[in-house]
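Much of what follows relies on a compact textual record of a protein's fold. An example makes this concrete, so a full record is given next.
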Amino acid sequence: MLIVNPFATATSPAGRDALAHTLSAHFDLDVELTTHRGHAFELATRAAAEGFDTVIVHGGDGSVNEAANGLLGPPSVSDPTRQRPALAVIPGGSANVFARTLGIDPDPLLATQQIISLLDAGRCRRIGLGHTDDRWFLFNTGMGMDAVVVHAMEDKRHAGKTATPARYLWTTVTSFLKQSGSSATFDVEIPGRDRIVGARFGFVSNTSPWTYLGPREIRTNPGTAFDTGLGVFVATSTGVLRNLPLATRLLTQANPKARHLFRDDDVDEVRFVAAEPIDVQMDGDYIGAFRDIRFRHRRDALAVVAPPVEITDITT
């Protein structure tokens, strides 16, 4: 099954037709266009129930997240022994973090040929995922700053503005300046660790990089990967002067460290607890404000069509 989000940033009717034609020449293909939020979830759920071999998603990270959740079902009841379709991604959004992290070409037509070659060669591997009680995430989630940025970007897209790297950067800077005056904090609980009190923002990663700024990788947790536990990146200050050196290290891919930063690249569980609801995002989608949210990791949760893992050096 090919699930296409026709409203995704980098999709076009001509491009969609071309890749659907190319795929249908090689495989028995069922093409479905999403029409509303949550539709990719519904289609992937149907694909799993009907025994499809593979679900290919052409869209942004939000559509891919929906499809993965549809394939697997809620984490609290998901059966890891049940046979499910593999997930493949043809980038169609603005960031395409998950596809790029898997090693999929950012060009949709080249990615289509890549997926065909991988399927022909039987290149499928299993990856770990992060999750709450009722939802899986593929690459990252967070409370505070990044969720505020995602929320602001969604408002801008709804107002008809395009999601560009420059707009993301400007929104991040302005949101950070606004948040520096906020008093909202939360505590962080990790089994076996001292409680972190007064966190101002926290990121939880399932892989690295955490995101991309155009072609530039932003690695908050360089040692986190699909075959490790979760990466945790928590700051207890939003002060501009304290965070400028940290931001510089992130932009230059130096090892992230600061006195107000807690970081661990491999944990199985983390909980954020706040006195008042604070914004949370998941895989680039704003999911609401929470007072208490727990993230866990499950190894080998999802089969993906992707190149083999490349061994790279990690700066320490």
